[in-house]
Write a structure and sequence with these properties.
single chain; about 130 residues; alpha/beta; 4-stranded mixed sheet; 3-stranded mixed sheet; 5 helices
Length: about 130
């Protein structure tokens, strides 16, 4: 089975641009209810995932005035979330999704294609067990 079976395309998922102002990104994250969101550069390449914890550390260590001039790309990230290529093996994806709530998927150029969620993988496995 190809990992693209599990792919939620970029058009259907939340993500932030690295040049997005921190204030706007905080509002977006609060409204979405997500605890982690992929970040892409202006060219559409995946650059990492930003978490609530990253924002919390930022807010606690910077003044309001400093935050007004910062972008998402400038926020230090504590954890390096790995991505998989669209042609990755299922074994590689399973290992990552067991450690992350979602796995970002990129194409051969590093362009962000979408995500694979842990929930979708678990539901697939549950359904497969019921059939077997």
């Amino acid at each position: 089975m190809n990992i693209s079976f599990f792919l939620k395309p970029k058009a259907e998922v939340s993500y932030l641009s690295a040049d997005c102002p921190v204030r706007q990104a905080l509002d977006d994250m609060m409204q979405s209810g997500f605890t982690a969101i992929p970040v892409i550069d202006p060219n559409g390449r995946y650059t990492g995932t930003i978490t609530e914890g990253d924002f919390l550390r930022l807010v606690l260590s910077h003044t309001s005035e400093q935050l007004d001039h910062m972008t998402v790309g400038e926020v230090p990230r504590r954890i390096r979330h790995s991505s998989v290529g669209i042609d990755a093996r299922m074994e590689d994806m399973i290992e990552l999704v067991s450690a992350q709530n979602f796995v970002p998927v990129t194409d051969g150029r590093g362009m962000f294609c979408g995500i694979i969620t842990r929930r979708d993988v678990i539901q697939f496995l549950r359904d497969s067990c019921k059939k077997g």
